[in-house]
């Protein structure tokens, strides 16, 4: 979940999902004021979700995620 400030004052305009090899496996735009975004993630492994301000090219924040399990809901 994103805070309202993330997409307004922080300027997040895109979320990127980066796999363990450093490859971007999914990217999605984020609209100003948006607080919920659906991401496509691999079914297992570790990824880094990167919040980006594409206007000025800065990384606002990164968050690591480990996905485990054998089913997708």
Structure description:
- The protein has 1 helix and 4 strands; from the N terminus they run αββββ.
- The chain is mostly beta strands and 73 residues long.
- It has one domain.
How are the SSEs placed, and which strands pair?
Blueprint: H1 4-7, E1 14-19, E2 24-29, E3 45-53, E4 58-67
Antiparallel strand pairs: 1-2, 1-3, 3-4
State the low-pLDDT regions, or none. none
What order do the strands of the largest sheet run in, or round the barrel if closed? 2-1-3-4
Mean pLDDT, nearest integer? 89
What can be said about the biggest beta sheet?
Answer: 4 strands, antiparallel
Overall spatial form: globular
Strand content: 35-45%
Structural class: mainly beta
Number of domains: 1
What is the helix tally? 1
Features:
single chain; 73 residues; mainly beta; 4-stranded antiparallel sheet
Quick rundown:
With 73 residues, the chain is mainly beta.
């Amino acid at each position: 979940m994103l805070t309202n400030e993330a997409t307004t004052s922080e300027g997040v305009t895109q979320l990127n999902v980066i796999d363990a090899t450093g490859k971007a496996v999914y990217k999605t735009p984020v609209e100003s004021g948006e607080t919920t975004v659906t991401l496509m993630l691999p079914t297992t492994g570790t990824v880094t979700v990167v919040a980006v301000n594409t206007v000025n090219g800065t990384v606002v924040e990164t968050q690591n995620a480990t996905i485990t399990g054998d089913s997708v809901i």
